[in-house]
Amino acid sequence: MEIRYKGVQYDLPQAVTDKAQKKILALKKYLRGDDHLARVYVELGKEAPAQQTGRIWLARINFSYRGTLYRAEALEESIENAIDRATGELGKELRRAKKKQESLFKRGGLMFKSMVRRA
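Below the sequence we write its predicted structure tokens.
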């Protein structure tokens, strides 16, 4: 899995990139064993540089896997919360895609089985 980080109006400390990497690597369980095909682009930083309080921290994650692009974005009061929320959204998308793929596979198998029984 290739992960690239970009700081948006913010210099990324090592602790922040380590936290983001830990959260993103936890999403490997939704991939089908070929995680080397995944490309992850992470943008972390401030949405409004002049603003000092409120929901100003941005985490934007683009996750490309087998030709499909999954996206998650979060705007929170701290960079850590933004990372948590964005990876949570991305996990939901990956879970849904994996479940859909499995159900299509099962449905195809049932159709094939019924065709073989008729013949």
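The beta strands are 2-8, 39-46, 57-65, 68-76.
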